[in-house]
């Protein structure tokens, strides 16, 4: 008879937390996709053995404290300016692996110009774009990526097309630019989606190694506290409502 | 035929009780505790440990990376 104690042994371990995540507990709400995205990025960096050569740029938003959780060199940028800061870092240290990690309020609103111009200059960086359709940290206000009809604290009757326009599909926009090598949209809500995202992250870091220009990875994620749902319900809502507007899959490269 | 048995260890104090792992488990091993941890969250535990195959589905979707997975061949 095999007991649980027989199975729980060091030689049988198949999954544990990567060493590149610090022991600090994530500051994110229960069920938030940021934690999975952090883990995937750090696992890829650990597997490629590039933690000494990697510099991350943290944004303003929920993930503003990413440098507390990611055990690689990090730099904090002003709101939306992460691609500009990453440009400077990657030009001074061309051999380093530079990535930015930004939310939709950061990248698609205040940082649109920096994002688009860094992409068109073909900087040798990876941009991670976490899209949950809302300003999560400040209390669930409407973002440029908020869906039409979606209720937020600043659009309590739903986003009105006539007053507030359409959501920006920034991932499709940057795919038009010649400086961008690899554009994909993934999610982290199911085990299979997590595996696909990890594959995409690996490809992006290999593009840096081969000096191929910008790799742009959008991760469609949930914001259960901003959407006022349970984590499981928010993932279902995301599948039903976000994915038709933001379809998953490789867009370029 | 060799059978695969698995087991998970949940870091109880770091678990935030989001229930995503319970939902992701294909063999219904996990459930939420009746008790709460130091922060007041319920946490996931192996309610049905014989069914675990160590497939890692729970650990892949865990947003707080609190699940460690073990797996071995039996027989």
Summarize the structure.
With 253 residues, chain A is α/β, with parallel strands linked by helices. Chain A is 39% helix and 19% strand.
How does this model look, in words?
The complex is a heterodimer of chains A (253) and B (75). Chain A is α/β, with parallel strands linked by helices and 253 residues long. Chain A has one domain (26-252): Rossmann fold. Chain A is built from 11 helices and 10 strands. A 7-stranded mixed beta sheet of chain A has the order 3-2-4-5-9-8-10, with helices on both faces. In chain A, strands 6-7 form a two-stranded antiparallel sheet. The longest helix of chain A has 19 residues, at 191-209. Chain A is globular, with a radius of gyration of 18 Å. Chain A starts with a helix and ends with a strand. The mean pLDDT of chain A is 95. Chain B is built from 2 helices and 4 strands. In chain B, the strands form 2 sheets. In chain B, strands 1-4 form a two-stranded antiparallel ribbon. Chain B has a two-stranded antiparallel ribbon with strand order 2-3. In chain B, strand 2 (30-36) and strand 3 form a beta hairpin. The A-B interface holds A 2, 4, 6-9, 12-18, 21, 25-26, 28-36, 39, 188-191, 194-195, 224, 230-232, 235 and B 5-7, 9, 14, 16-20, 23-24, 41, 46, 49, 54-57, 59-72, 74. Strand 1 (13-15) of chain A pairs antiparallel with strand 4 of chain B.
Tell me which protein chains meet in the greatest interface and how many residues each side has.
A-B, 37 and 34 residues
CATH architectural group of chain B: 2-Layer Sandwich
> What low-confidence regions of chain A span 5 or more consecutive residues with pLDDT below 50?
none
What is the number of independent domains of chain A? 1
Q: Class by helix and strand content of chain B?
A: mainly beta
């Amino acid at each position: 008879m095999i007991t649980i104690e027989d199975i729980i042994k060091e030689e049988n371990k198949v999954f544990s937390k990567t060493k590149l995540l610090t022991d600090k507990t994530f500051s994110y709400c229960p069920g938030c996709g940021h934690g999975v995205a952090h883990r995937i990025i750090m696992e890829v960096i650990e597997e490629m053995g590039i933690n000494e050569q990697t510099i991350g740029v943290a944004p303003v938003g929920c993930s503003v404290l990413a440098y507390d959780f990611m055990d690689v060199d990090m730099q904090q940028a002003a709101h939306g300016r992460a691609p500009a800061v990453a440009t400077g870092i990657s030009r001074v240290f061309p051999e380093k692996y530079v990535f930015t990690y930004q939310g939709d309020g950061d990248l698609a609103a205040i940082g649109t110009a920096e994002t688009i111009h860094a992409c068109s200059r073909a900087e040798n960086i990876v941009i991670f774009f976490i899209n949950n359709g809302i300003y999560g940290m400040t209390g669930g206000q409407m973002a440029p990526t908020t869906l039409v009809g979606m209720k937020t604290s600043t659009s309590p009757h739903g986003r009105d097309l006539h007053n507030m326009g359409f959501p920006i599909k920034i991932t499709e926009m940057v795919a038009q630019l010649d400086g961008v090598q690899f554009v994909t949209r993934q999610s982290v809500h199911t085990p299979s989606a997590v595996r696909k995202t990890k594959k995409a992250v690996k490809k992006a870091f290999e593009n840096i190694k081969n000096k191929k220009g910008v790799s742009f990875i959008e991760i469609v994620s949930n914001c259960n506290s901003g959407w006022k749902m349970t984590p499981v319900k928010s993932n279902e809502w995301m599948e039903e409502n976000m994915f038709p507007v933001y379809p998953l899959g490789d867009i370029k490269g | 035929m060799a059978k695969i048995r698995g087991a998970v260890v949940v870091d109880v104090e770091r678990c935030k009780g989001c229930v995503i792992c319970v939902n992701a488990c294909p063999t219904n091993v996990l459930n939420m505790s009746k008790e709460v941890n130091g922060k007041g969250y319920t946490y996931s535990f192996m309610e049905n440990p014989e069914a675990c195959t160590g497939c890692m589905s729970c650990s892949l979707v865990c947003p707080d990376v609190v699940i460690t997975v073990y797996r071995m061949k039996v027989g």
